[in-house]
Amino acid sequence: MRSVDLCLILLQQLNSAGEVKISEVAREYGVSQSTVHRSLAMLVYRGFAVPTIAHTYLAGPALNTSTLTPRLGMQLSKIARPYLQLMTAATGETTHLTITRGRKTHFIDTVDGIKAVRVGSRKGQVVPAENNSGGLACLAELSSREQRELYKDWTLEDFKQLRRKLRRVRERGFSVNNQMAEKDVSAVGAALVNDMGDVLGAVTISMPSIRFSEMSALASETLRTYATELNLQLADFVHPTSPTTTPNQG
Questions:
Q1: What is the pLDDT of residues 96-124, one digit of tens each?
Q2: Do the record's keywords include Transcription regulation (predicted)?
Q3: Which of 47, 65, 74, 175 is the most exposed place for a label (fewest CB within 10 A)?
Q4: Fold of the domain built from segment(s) 70-234
């Protein structure tokens, strides 16, 4: 792997998860820890990463323009990953954790499917929210006013088409993406919402479109089951950007 490719991967992970570990990156991408360390040292020098005493690296000040709150992805992933693993075990397909901010969906974590032909990892990618199942599930949780504010530059007709799509998501309880963004890739997704009504992210199950007709029922039922359980776990999860109140003193 070329050093520039590794630096871009590290930037994507810092931007989405807010934190990286040298050993995990080395293992996932098949490079030495010293290679990862050298790339991170350059990112530290340029302000894109900050080392910690725990031997991890956090997103640096040069990434402060990210729409994601630092470490939100890491916090959510710790809770969601066991459910991704359960969904993959139940379906054999690839599962993802995503976070949508504005009109962008960030792929935070992936559990690869166990079938020979499967959808690969999208971890670190950022895509338009309206073109993927995780983004659609999150957009459907917003009010009509919030949706229109996000897409105020769209024509009224285009926005109406999106609204119809989002209403179907609300009615079903999950979203469907059948080759909307990628040819031969289909997915279903469900939003993650805490008890305060904050939309935290989404979990998705992705598969080659050739299997979608035979797998959609199982994937949808599996998704609904585990997304419901995960939302119970996230009931008290405090969104870092949620408004807080300070109790009166005295």
A1: 999 998 888 888 899 999 999 999 888 87
A2: yes
A3: 65
A4: Beta-Lactamase (3.30.450)
E-strand spans in the chain?
A: 19-21, 49-51, 56-59, 94-101, 104-111, 126-128, 175-178, 185-193, 199-208
How far, in whole angstroms, is CA 5 from its chain's centroid? 21
Between 20 and 93, the more confident residue is 93
Query: Which class does domain 3-59 fall in?
Result: mainly alpha
What is the token pair recorded at 18?
């807010």
Cβ atoms of residues 134 and 202 within 8 Å = yes
Q: Which two tokens stand for residue 162?
A: 């999106």
Report the predicted TM-score, pTM, of the whole model to 2 decimal places: 0.73
Q: Where are the domains of the chain?
A: 3-59, 70-234
